[in-house]
Design goal:
This protein has 450 residues and is α+β, with helices and mostly antiparallel strands. The protein folds into 2 domains: 261 residues, Gcn5-related N-acetyltransferase (GNAT) (Aminopeptidase), CATH 3.40.630; 94 residues. Helices cover 43% and strands 15% of the residues. The chain contains 17 helices and 11 strands. Strands 1, 2, 3, 4, 5, 6, 9, 10 and 11 form a 9-stranded mixed β-sheet that branches. Strands 7-8 form a two-stranded antiparallel sheet. The longest helix is centred in the C-terminal third of the chain and has 22 residues.
Length: 450
Amino acid sequence: MERRINLLIKLLQDTIDRVPRGQKRKLGFCLKRLIIHAKLLKNEPMLTKELYLWVLTHLLFNRSIDKGYYTMLNGGLQDGLGLLISEHNRQVKEAFQRSKINWAIWHAFPEVERRDVDYHEAVPDKNGKWLEIMRDCQWFAAEFLNTPLIGAIRKDIAEIQKRKKEIISGSISDTKENCYVLFKRFYESRKHYVKKGIEIKPSPNFSVRLESVYHKIFSLSSKPKLLRLSVRLWDRSFRDIFQGNFSDCCVAIGIRGRYPGIKLPGVTCHKYPAGILNYLTDLGVQVAEIRDEDLDITIGQCWLFVSPDKDGPVLVVDSTDVIPDYSEHEVLNAAMRDCMFSFLKKYAEAIRVNRIVIGEFGPYLGNAKFHGIKHDLSWSPIREYEFSGPITKLGGYLLNQPYFLETCGATLADLIYDNGRVGVARTKKDEFVPIKSIDEYVKKYGGDEF
């Protein structure tokens, strides 16, 4: 096993070396996560190691398989673990069909739910915001205090002061052109010194200082700020091994210190969970992902499975995970929740399931404690729903080894959909600072090792 993992690491490293320069940032991030995770698996159970190797072999290096469905159901690749996976998924399919769930729609629901959100909020104290802008301008200038650029920056700040009335009135909108114009002398001087071969090294904080100035100025803009959101089922393709990384979730691949917040009964992972590997290879688990369409990135998801109950099968939302940049804003949180719930309603109706619940508590852990489940989306349920027995995953587990599904074992959950009725949003309040680029997204959520 160690030899196979070492060979995998070498293959991944060789692949990084061949990545075109223009793709190093994005693709290099993915491959480095995989290498780090391979190294972290040293003390994990054998099944976790085997699953990791299987997923990478059949979803990364076998280019004839863009989606894993047919391999995982039909045993298209005849290896030992592959046959076990396909046999398990045949049993899952039969369990769904016995429960009269539409299996074809369950694994291939084509609809995408979309929302255009205006997240603009009026600033109540504009004069106070102006003082913050001036403070941040001085902090930015301080980063270049002993450099040839300080004169240009001071002239830019003086020009910004002359435009106080225009800025406070909200006439300056968030555009690349305005970013350049506000500090035009700084950018032109910097370009001049670069051409002359003079390298100016400010402190690493200078870009943060500058972004803060921009953000505060543009927050006064009266122009609507639109964000295009969507919710869809994942593809169950190779990129989905990074679903936990997309939302900064505990099942993220290749990031240290992400041990799940709770040790669940029967789950054997020690420190680096197999959760995402189980979700990928078990067709009885689905993921609905939330996307920022403007940046073409996944910003969150909910993890789904079906639990049998006396009144019919129930769609269970095991948890909802969204990166804080989006989840901590009241308007966006409600919009993502509405978009997600609307998608789940259509999905449940299409697969012929009449109820949807979200887990609030997991199994009993002893010492009079129940596991409380963290959710990044907020809601108010229709009511509390009590199962006739412990929540279980329909179709069981691969090799009868429980997965990291936090709701399993509980008996109570929040009912958010009941034969047409849908729950409503709770509210959160915070300031939203949008992510502006793929590079910022990778830098912020790529982990310390990247």
